[in-house]
Amino acid sequence: MDFVSDALFDGRPIRILAVIDAHTREALSIVPRANFRAFDVVAELDRLARERGRPKTLKVDNGPEFAGRMLDQWAHLNGVEIDFSRPGKPTDNAHIEAFNSRLRAECLNASWFLSLADARERLEAWRGEYNEERPHGSLRNLTPRAFAEQARTARRVA
Prior knowledge:
Blueprint: E1 2-7, E2 13-20, E3 27-33, H1 38-52, E4 57-60, H2 64-67, H3 69-78, E5 81-84, H4 94-108, H5 116-132, H6 144-157
Parallel strand pairs: 4-5
Antiparallel strand pairs: 1-2, 2-3
């Protein structure tokens, strides 16, 4: 989980919360907002937990949205461990950094967002393509969605 910054066509800044599954490489959520507070991060994590179940661990940086009491309390109440990366060490969270690089190169740099609604629509379209149409070499050339489905099937069989 990490943030990426960008701007709308008129220069107004936006922040984008990106949440990926480190095992399946699925982009679980890409949410643009004018600004994020810890409450917004927790609300998104609650939504994802209802859809997919709670994670065992969250890998995050030391940003104020992640290092505050609200996320700590959410993690404690949900039995989730928070794994903070060391300051200045992006390699501690290499999966999200690689994802953010692709997001920036393929979507953010190629788009001119007219509004937050436009950004939401385009980011969601890119997330769908990333999860469902693009094979990843690290996943034996499966798409993240296909790899995740294969993993779910294997868990049911086991």
